């Protein structure tokens, strides 16, 4: 039972849609508390394109790790981490998904977090027009490392107080418009050391280049598959 959240690369922003091969990959809809056969774009997240999570479900079942995988997405494109804490525009979707899962007798077994691109800042010349912005993500200034760690802690507190006992997995994810951010990378890698019940997720900044990201930010079909493979390898440990 995967509760997944973050911004566009955790939502439906992939270049190619995917329908799982296995009929045991289900998409939980927090709006009505029901499960549906998963197919991109997944219910619960913004965007009209492909998702990493539908591909991940197939890989987990194919490996024999689980008989079935239920995915509860609560992700939105363009969201900085401050949008996911209490008072932020993306916070209600996460909490409502958790409440709906618990009410339906489906407590999450994993919370997967893939976010950070909107907290990164590309080099000044990109913003000045010397390099064209290629995505829909919005950048202002880089979020300070300690601030990012603190804000994730605030989100985690609300999840725990809401009844989530599952471990959280935090991906290292900062690349957009072909640029990443060392400070945000360090923050994401610090979080599992700072908070109990949090584990490192995959480093998806290593999935880089036009073969993998069609606009310097969002994943191609092969990029989504590689992204899903990294999560599957990690959850298999």
Highlighted features:
237 residues; alpha/beta; Rossmann fold; seven-stranded mixed sheet; 7 strands
Explain this structure.
There is one protein chain. The chain is α/β, with parallel strands linked by helices and 237 residues long. The chain has helices at 52-62, 91-103, 124-128, 145-161, 182-194, 221-235; strands spanning 2-6, 25-29, 34-37, 69-75, 110-114, 168-172, 198-203. A seven-stranded mixed beta sheet has the order 3-2-4-1-5-6-7, sandwiched between helices. α1 packs across α6 (221-235) and α4 packs across α5. The radius of gyration is 16 Å and the shape is globular. Residues 123-139 have low confidence and may be disordered.
Percentage of residues in strands:
15-25%
How are the strands of the biggest sheet laid out side by side? 3-2-4-1-5-6-7
Uncertain parts: 123-139
The major beta sheet can be summarized as:
7 strands, mixed
Name of the CATH homologous superfamily: SGNH hydrolase
Question: Count of DSSP helices?
Answer: 6
Number of strands: 7
Briefly characterize the structure.
This protein has 237 residues and is of the alpha/beta class. 31% of the residues lie in helices and 16% in strands.
């Amino acid at each position: 039972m995967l509760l997944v959240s973050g911004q566009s690369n955790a939502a439906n922003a992939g270049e190619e849609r995917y329908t799982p091969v296995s009929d045991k990959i289900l998409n939980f809809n927090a709006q009505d508390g029901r499960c549906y056969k998963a197919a991109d774009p997944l219910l619960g997240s913004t965007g009209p394109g492909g998702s990493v999570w539908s591909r991940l479900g197939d890989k987990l079942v194919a490996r024999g790790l689980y008989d079935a995988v239920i995915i509860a997405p609560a992700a939105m494109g363009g969201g900085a981490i401050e949008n996911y804490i209490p008072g932020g525009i993306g916070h209600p979707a996460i909490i409502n998904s958790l409440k709906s899962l618990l009410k339906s007798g489906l407590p999450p077994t994993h919370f997967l977090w893939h976010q950070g691109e909107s907290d990164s800042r590309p080099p000044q010349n990109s913003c000045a027009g010397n390099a064209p912005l290629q995505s829909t993500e919005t950048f202002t200034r880089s979020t300070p490392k300690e601030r990012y760690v603190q804000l994730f802690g605030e989100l985690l507190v609300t999840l725990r107080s809401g009844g989530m006992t599952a471990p959280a997995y935090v991906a290292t994810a900062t690349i957009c418009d072909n640029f990443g951010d060392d400070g945000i990378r360090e923050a994401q890698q610090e979080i599992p050391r700072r908070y109990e019940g949090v584990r490192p997720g995959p480093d998806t900044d290593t999935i880089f280049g036009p073969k993998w990201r069609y606009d310097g930010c969002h994943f191609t079909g092969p990029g989504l598959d590689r992204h899903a493979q990294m999560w599957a390898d990690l959850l298999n440990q």
